[in-house]
Amino acid sequence: MAFGLMAFGLMAFGAPLARAAEPTRGAAAKRPATEFAALPIVGADSDVGIGGGVIASLARVRPDLEPHLWRLEAVGMTTVKQVEGDWDVRYADLSLMLSLPHVIRDRLGLTLRASYTQETALSYYGMGNAAQVTGSRPEGDAYYAFDWTHPRAEATAEIQLGGSFELSTGASYTHNRITAPAQGQLAVDSQSPDAELRHLTELVPEHDVVTFSVGLNWDTRDDEVSPERGHYHSLRFDLSPSTGEQVPYRWMRTDLVLRQYVPLWPDRLVAAARLLGDALFGQPPFYELARFDSSFAVGGTRGMRGVPAPGYYGMLKLIANLELRARLFSLDLFDKDYDFGMVAFTDFGRVFADYGSLSELDGPGLGVKVSLGAGVRVRAGKSFVLRADVAASPGEGSTAAYLTAGHLF
Fold first, then answer.
1. 141-181: per-residue pLDDT in tens?
2. Which residue, 400, 308, 354, is CA-closest to 200?
3. CATH class of the domain defined by 17-405
C-alpha cells in the first residue's frame, strides 16, 4: 500500500471488508452487476493510538472475472493518542484508489492511487542499531520527534508471466514536508561534525521524491488471505533520481522477501516464516532509513512487533518473523463462516547505519533485537482476517499491542 492505512487496524463490523468486490450469490451472480458499500473502520495501535473512519467501494463485478472488472475505493481515517492527559491527532489519511485487474484479461492489471497522509510526533532517537534515549529527556519528549506530511500519487502495473510468476512495475510521486525542532535530535545529527552522519540525516524540510519500481514475484500459496502451504517470494528494485533542488535525493532500494508456509496439522496448525532484507544505496531521505515497502521495519506492526515505530534507522535492515498459527474452531454467524484461532510468534531484527564506515553507531556484538508475542485471529468469509497482537521486546524493555487487518505476511 503504498501503505495507505499505515499499519492501522480495520474491522468491518461483522462483514468482510472486501465484500463489495465479490460477486453476489444465486441468480444475480449470472449477470454483471454494480455493487456499492460503505463501511466504518475502527482499530488500535500502541504506536499511533485509536481511531477510525470510513471506507466506500464501488465495483463492477462479472461472474466470469475474479475478483472484479473494476473497483473504485475511497478511504478516510484518523487516529488519536493520549499524551499527558491530552488527546493528540497522530495520523490522518485520505486516499482514492482505482483497481483495474483485467486491462488485459488474466494478464495485465493496473492500480492507480492518490493519497494525502499526515503523521505527527514520529520518533527519531538517532542513527544506527545502538540508538537510544540519552540524558534527562524522557522517551516521548518533543526533542526526539518530527512531523511528516506526504501527499502521493502512484501507478502500478502487474503482469502475469505464467508458472506462478508475476512482474510488477510502477512509478510514484510524493511531496514531503518535514517539521522538526530546530535544536532536536534530528537537527543535531544533520549538523554533526561527522560528514557521514550529516550525509545520512541531511534534512530538506520540503522536497519531492519520484520513484520508479520493478519487481518479480513467485507465488505458490494455496490462499492469498490465509495460506497454509506454499511459498511467496519477491524481489523489488526502486530507483529515485535527483533533478535539482526540489527533487534533491538520488537513491536506490533493493528489497528481498522470502515467505514459506508449512502445514503441521492439516486445517489446524501452520508454521509460517518470513525473511526480509532491505538495502538502500546513494542518498535516500532520512525517513526511508526506518522503512521497507512503505512501512516501518524494525519497529511497528508490519515489520518487527513489540518495538515502537518508527524504531531504528539504517541503510541496511534485516528482519525474520516466525509464527505458529492454530485454527481452534469455526462458527456460522449471520450467514457467514468465521474461523477463530491463535498465533504465537517471535520476531528478530537488526539495522546497520551504513556499510561499514559508521559501525560505532551500531554498537558492539550482534545487536539483534528480539521480541515475543501472541495474538488472536478471526477470519470472516474468504477475504478478511482480523489480527490482534501483543508483543514484548525484553531487550528494549518495550511492549506493544495492535488491532489490524490481515496476517503480518
1. 899 999 999 999 999 999 999 889 999 999 999 999 999 99
2. 354
3. mainly beta
Write down the domain spans for the chain: 17-405
Handedness of CA 49, 53, 58, 63 (dihedral sign): positive
Helix (H) or strand (E) holding 186: helix 185-190
Residue with cell 527519531: 124
Separation between Cα atoms, residue 373 and residue 349, nearest integer Å = 15
Residue 237 to residues 169, 181, 211, 215, Cα–Cα distance (Å): 9, 33, 10, 6
Give the rounded percent of residues in the chain with a pLDDT score beyond 70: 92
* Element at 260 (helix H, strand E): strand 251-265
Cis peptide before 266 (omega within 30 of 0): no
201 or 82, which is more confident?
Answer: 201
**Interacting residues of 143 by C-beta distance below 8 A, sequence separation 6+:** 137, 181, 183, 184, 185
C-alpha cell at 349: 531484527
